[in-house]
Design brief:
The model has no long low-confidence stretch (mean pLDDT 95). It contains six helices and 13 strands. The longest helix has 16 residues. The strands form three sheets. The protein has a six-stranded mixed beta sheet with strand order 2-1-3-6-12-13. A four-stranded antiparallel beta sheet has the order 8-9-7-10. It has 237 residues and is of the alpha/beta class. The two termini are 27 Å apart.
Length: 237
């Protein structure tokens, strides 16, 4: 069947709602970034407003998540204010069979990795188009890089066999700037044979703040997909 943009939006909404339903009163919740997670944040707000959830604290992974959380009535705090993260809900650009992720399409992967890695339960919300057999087959690996280090990091990545591309703004002139004031290199690798090793190697390049490989972080993947023409949520654990 042909999946329309409206169908994808419907899947994202259903997955976001399903993730938000796993949150219980009293939890500290990591609020991810992206279109699917936005539906989860909206659903959390609805549950708070109805009295179904109480004593919830949201830890945003980006300015976008902070704005949405406040919009929907979720108390927003920082990691300085809490001693734990009970659950994090976040999207992904790619998910492989080992639940290894590529994230960073929204240039928020540094904060996302901090919050998602701290969570006792990290729930990934995606539609079926994000599932891949081989990591890096549809999406480049984003690197958040200090602006003064773009040139040497580019050379170092090329020596590793990667093809780096400075991410440019869509509705602005010049490069994308992260919430931390850095730039993003999107690096394409012909093959990612060992994601864990590559994650460490990339982060060891001076000037790299963080990369978008998330290895061994995801606990549950909620996948929105169409089965016999009907939207369904599949849980991968």
């Amino acid at each position: 069947m042909t999946i329309s943009a409206d169908d994808i939006k419907k899947l994202k909404k259903e997955v976001g709602i399903a993730a938000a339903q796993k949150v219980q009163s009293g939890m500290v919740v990591g609020l991810g970034t992206g279109s699917t997670t936005a539906f989860a944040i909206e659903e959390l707000g609805r549950r708070i407003a109805s009295g179904e959830l109480t004593d919830i604290v949201g830890i945003p992974t980006s300015f976008q998540a902070s704005v949405l959380g406040k919009k929907y009535g979720i108390p927003i705090r920082s990691l300085d204010d809490v001693d734990r993260v009970d659950v994090a809900i976040d999207g992904a650009d790619e998910v492989d069979p080992a639940k290894t992720l590529i994230k960073g399409g929204g240039a928020a992967h540094t904060r996302e990795k901090v919050v998602d890695s701290l969570a006792s339960l990290f729930i990934v919300v995606v539609d079926e188009s994000k599932l891949v057999d081989r990591l890096g087959s549809t999406f480049a690996v984003p690197l958040e890089v200090l602006p003064m280090a773009i040139a040497p990091v580019t050379r170092a990545v090329e020596k590793l066999g990667g093809k780096p591309d400075l991410r440019m703004g869509v509705k602005k002139d010049g490069p994308v700037i992260t919430d931390q004031g850095n730039m993003v290199l999107d690096v394409t690798f012909e093959v990612i044979a060992d994601a864990a090793s590559l994650e460490q190697t990339l982060n060891n390049i001076p000037g790299v703040v963080e990369n978008g490989l998330f290895v061994g972080v995801a606990d549950v993947i909620l996948v929105g997909e169409f089965v016999d023409g009907q939207p369904q949520i599949r849980e991968i654990v």
